[in-house]
Amino acid sequence: METRKEEKGIAETIINALIEQCGIDKVKELVDKAAGVKTNAVETSKEKEMEEFLLEKWKDMEIITKPQLPNSIFYKKDGAVIMEQDKKNDFMWVSYEHIWSVFYTRYELDYNQTQAFIKRMLRQHLKLESLTPLAIVFTCNP
User: Is the pTM of this model over 0.85?
Assistant: First the structure.
């Protein structure tokens, strides 16, 4: 317990010396910069986790086409449709249940953030350049 008080006293001494030497504005700038580095590291870690989640969903997907639906390509995982590519309108319908809701609940992204992230991952990993991801609840399983 005494060591903690000593550390706090040393930190206060260092901060006061910095304020005296550089001025309060420069110290605030340095503290803000240090906080930003920590925030960026957390965001990078979160983004990496989100990417890994999506790649796991996409791993070993079954790709299905149906002659009666020539403008659609279905992507299935574990028997469930997780995405449908609408070739005519350049949409990628993404399962709310299996993917979209996870970004909302686990990663606390809003709709636009989720859309932008999935779009970037579609481009980067599946080489699907011009698709706009949209959330959907699939009611049938082709």
Answer: no
What is the residue range of 10's domain?
Answer: 2-45
d(CA 100, CA 57): 11
110-123 pLDDT, tens digit each: 999 999 999 999 99
The verdict on residue 52 lying in a domain is no
Residues 80 and 103 in one domain: yes
Classify strands 132-136 and 62-66 as parallel, antiparallel or unpaired.
Answer: unpaired
Q: What is the pLDDT of residue 30?
A: 63
CA–CA separation, 115 vs 109, rounded Å? 9
Residues 41 and 65 in one domain: no
